[in-house]
Amino acid sequence: MQPELFPGQGIQRDAGRDLQGVLQQNPLESWDIIAGDTTSGHDNAESFAEDVQELGGEVRKQLFTPVPTPDFGTYITQLNQEPAKGLLAIVYGADGVTFAKQQQQFGLLDKYEVVLGNNFAIPAVLPAMGEAALGVIQNVTYVPQVEGDGPRKFADAFAKIAGHEPDDVAFDMYTSMIALAQAMNKAGTEEAAAVSKALEGLVIDSPVGPLEIRAEDHQMSRPYIFAEVVAAAPDSGKTVDYQIKSIIPAADYMPPPSPECTM
User: Fold this and answer.
1) How does pLDDT run across 146-156, given as a tens digit for each residue?
2) What's the rounded Cα separation, in Å, for the pair 155 and 142?
3) Element (H, E) at 248
4) Which residues of the chain have pLDDT under 50?
5) How far apart are CA 153 and CA 255, in angstroms?
């Protein structure tokens, strides 16, 4: 069964806007946000709040935590007080694991109808989070499930060599090497300037579909995947896994090339 594609959503203005498709499918009236007190945490929270407001909702609580934070108790207590309908968690790395584990003691995530993760329950930390991340809908660039239920060209080949399934970082590195090899073959040289020029407009055939390096601004257009954290199959050797929920085509979330770009 193919995952449902989001309908067209218009042009997004920044990377934080890739969550708008999920908001359209889950038009909740209120949201809370917890994010690391970093530039990216504030930027993504601001973009998300703008999207919520554009769709007629409101953001009630915006909590920004120091990085690192060994104890999320005070923030969990605040979120527990009249939680909104949805929660966006922008808590990265070890802090994400700590928050997931500590909130589990209070059943915090269960009190929300929808929990979205932005670099929260990503493949690199999901095993450490385990059941504490159940139900989180996480944006990812790649998970093996996107290749379907049959033979998986990239995931199976990678697992045969590495002994484990690829994550999003492995996929990105693979894609980068394919792009570099194709550009060098196209340019007929390894000279940097020629290879850079050959990358413009290059289309890579990948397990998630064609990926184009736009000639105008050198940005790679790629679909965005949303996957829910679910209990893993009994024979998988895992506690939790991902289930594809939706895929947003690049045209529906990436801004058009800027005429001011001089890259």
Assistant:
1) 998 888 889 99
2) 10
3) strand 240-248
4) 1-16
5) 31
